[in-house]
Design goal:
single chain, alpha/beta, Rossmann fold, 6-stranded parallel β-sheet, two-stranded antiparallel ribbon, 10 strands, Thymidine kinase, transferase, kinase, ATP-binding
Length: 196
């Protein structure tokens, strides 16, 4: 039975690496996959999912007004595939998450989404909120804070090195400005807790 999966984490936890490995495992067993990533995230080139460790693969892209149920249906018409993989899933719209759920239910295609859960302000992305509500299974891709605790939050630092409290939710690139932290150290960076 097909399911909608949400693999989530903070920045630089290896979500794309995990996605690429899972897709490779399917193909190694003779099963085709369908990879999608956000069109405007072209850090590795348009239509490419890439990991910081140097692996990457071509992918189809989606933008806000794409109907992903139609996109998966069209891809199926060109030949069967065993699983759809969505990178940068935080950029999905709520409607697109429902379209993916419909593809799981009506087309019997497993869909594995990989993305951030929260932004640098500690707020859910729209796509992530919808996935948390609709996913059949959720899996955390873990990374650690500098203190050794599990990192669940991320700060975006400004040119002065201090944590930003405001700004656009989405900033493509700039990995060097983000730091994954445990909640306690995130609170300290945001001025909500004295540093110890």
């Amino acid at each position: 039975m097909a399911k909608l999966y949400f693999h989530y984490s903070t920045m630089n936890a290896g979500k794309s690496t995990v996605l690429l490995q899972a897709a490779h495992n399917y193909r190694e067993r003779g099963m085709q996959t369908y990879l999608l990533t956000a069109q405007f995230d072209n850090r590795a080139g348009e239509g490419r999912i890439a990991s910081r460790i140097g692996i990457g693969e071509a992918a189809d892209t989606f933008c806000d007004d794409d109907d992903l149920f139609a996109k998966l249906t069209d891809r199926l018409a060109r030949g069967p595939f065993a699983c759809a993989f969505i990178d940068e899933a935080q950029f999905l719209t709520k409607a697109q998450v429902w379209q993916l759920a419909r593809a799981v239910d009506d087309l019997n295609i497993p869909v594995m989404c990989y993305g951030l859960r929260v932004d640098f302000r500690g707020e859910l992305f729209d796509g992530s909120a919808a996935l948390l509500a609709l996913a059949d299974e959720m899996r955390e891709v873990r990374t650690i804070c500098h203190c050794g605790r599990k990192a669940t939050m991320v700060v975006r630092r400004g040119p002065d090195g201090l944590a930003l409290h405001e700004g656009a939710q989405v900033m493509i690139g700039g990995n060097e400005t983000y730091v994954s932290l445990c909640r306690r150290h995130w609170r300290a960076e945001m001025g909500d807790l004295p540093v110890r």
